[in-house]
Amino acid sequence: MFDFAPDTGLATPERYRQMRDAALALTDGESDTIANMANLAALMAEFLPDLNWAGFYRVSGRELVLGPFIGRPACIRIPVGQGVCGAAAESGKTQLVEDVHAFPGHIACDAASRSELVVPIVRDGEVIAVIDLDSPVQARFTQEDAAGLEALATAIAERV
Length: 160
Ligand code: SME
Prior knowledge:
160 residues
């Protein structure tokens, strides 16, 4: 049994540090992309409060294709360049959106979502996938969340 759980009352940077350590332990020695993404989605949902969706989209040609996630059923294919995920994949840059209703082209998969954080996963200079977090709370994500999720993306880039 895996029993990774954050300590209570953690400051955000320490919470992400513990989550990254757990992610590396959980994926150690395993090379299957789907298995690792599935466990990582579950880990993010356990470690990070106030989320309604946590998971992955994988780059396939000029599209993003839905990967393992925790949350409501979601859009399956997103063209690179569209929506928050597509913007992250196209630019290779983190997208921190405080109010999804104010983001031109935001793709609503769950009407409850109010804010979103998307971080690209880069391997050998190419964006191979993105990590997507959604929250029903407006402005849920800060620069500390962005930095923590970027560190996770770097840590797991060779394991997904
Ligand atoms: N809102 C995203 C689409 C994916 S769902 O949130 C799971 C976007 O605009 O790219």
